[in-house]
Task: inverse folding
């Protein structure tokens, strides 16, 4: 048997940043000490940098779904009407959360692989004058579709300026241009296991001043996920409850790295890898699943005669490479390759080369090396690498 390294190519969890991994192994800290309070203060500022916002960013020990729940319970009252734009599994989670907390939920949707047209969102905003919030994904990771966040923000500003804008950017942050303050995004949700390059277990939510004002009259019950309570604690250099101290120490290291690299460069890294991967898939005769593709990940339709289940299985067995299957009704039909966080071009070349071998072994007619070559060519174009003159 040859040496094989375990490699994650899933859109969460993603590979850990080595500096963060080392920090996670440091001795435990008590959370009510001056040393840990210094970490909290630094985290507050660096999270704002990562988000690209002047708004407060609150964090919890939870998955991203915890922050999604908090974005409902802290800002809405029973029976209030909200609009959910959904085109995948995580848009459907907004629907489930809204109904679970007794809100009146209006839905505009698009089939998996498509994005919700602005015209449908405009029609709903004009129809329902009492909409109090607009919920959607910046990038829908179940289908690798990108929503037009700026376009939706413009509609809100023009038609329903009093409604809150709530964006699930769990895979959008660090991969997608999001002008939170300029576009007026009131609540923006993130998670630690994505572009932040640390393990699952932390969720984040940036909160605009408009949203803080709304929270004063919100009537839904809340206790642990109480954003105002956490805001007040952070202002005192503390947390309301016991935080995930080791994860926060790892996050500190990751945010230091992002500061050094540059937030814009982190986003561009995902964009370049996504574009190179899309070129490679086309060269292999494969079709993109998403009509408006996100840069956090690439969703690819499996060849007509091959199940993505077999592709996923063989990638793991042959190369210890973990590629994401489709979710729900898309399982067996698509596979998804991630680009967010601690991936570089060599990682992408490796997974593309392995995929070529797997596809060929499963009977797909493709020329070995064609995908790698297409990715290489596109990389040189995007990064202005000039090919050397041929050696004779």
Result:
């Amino acid at each position: 048997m040859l040496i094989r390294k375990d490699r994650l190519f899933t859109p969460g969890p993603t590979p850990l940043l080595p500096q963060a991994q080392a920090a996670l192994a440091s001795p435990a800290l008590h959370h009510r000490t001056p040393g840990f309070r210094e970490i909290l203060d630094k985290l507050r500022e660096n999270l704002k940098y990562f988000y690209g916002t002047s708004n407060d960013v609150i964090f919890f020990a939870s998955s991203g779904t915890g922050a999604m729940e908090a974005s409902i319970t802290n800002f809405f009252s029973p029976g209030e009407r909200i609009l959910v734009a959904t085109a995948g599994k995580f848009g459907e989670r907004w629907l489930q959360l809204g109904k679970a907390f007794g809100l009146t939920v209006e839905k505009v949707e698009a089939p998996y692989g498509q994005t919700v047209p602005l015209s449908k969102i405009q029609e709903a905003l004009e129809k329902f004058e009492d909409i109090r919030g607009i919920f959607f994904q910046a990038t829908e990771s179940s289908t690798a579709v990108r929503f037009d966040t700026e376009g939706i923000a413009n509609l809100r500003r023009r038609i329903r300026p009093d409604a809150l804008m709530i964006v699930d950017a769990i895979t959008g942050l660090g991969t997608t241009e999001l002008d939170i303050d300029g576009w007026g995004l009131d609540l923006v949700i993130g998670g630690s296991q994505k572009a932040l390059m640390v393990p699952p277990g932390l969720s984040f939510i940036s909160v605009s001043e408009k949203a803080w004002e709304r929270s004063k009259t919100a009537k839904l019950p809340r206790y642990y996920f109480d954003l105002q309570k956490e805001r007040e604690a952070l202002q005192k250099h503390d947390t309301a409850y016991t935080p995930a101290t080791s994860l926060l120490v790892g996050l500190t290291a990751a945010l230091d790295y992002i500061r050094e690299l540059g937030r814009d460069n982190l986003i561009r890294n995902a964009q370049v890898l996504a574009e190179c991967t899309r070129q490679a898939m086309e060269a292999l005769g494969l079709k993109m699943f998403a009509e408006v593709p996100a840069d956090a990940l690439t969703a690819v339709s499996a060849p007509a005669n091959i199940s993505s289940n077999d592709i996923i299985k063989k990638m793991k067995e042959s190369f210890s490479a973990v590629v994401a299957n489709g979710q729900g009704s898309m399982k067996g039909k698509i596979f998804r390759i991630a680009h967010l966080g601690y991936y570089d071009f060599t990682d992408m070349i490796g997974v593309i080369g392995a995929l070529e071998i797997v596809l060929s072994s499963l009977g797909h007619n493709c020329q070995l090396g064609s995908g790698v070559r297409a990715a290489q060519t596109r990389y040189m174009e995007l990064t202005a690498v000039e090919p050397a003159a041929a050696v004779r």
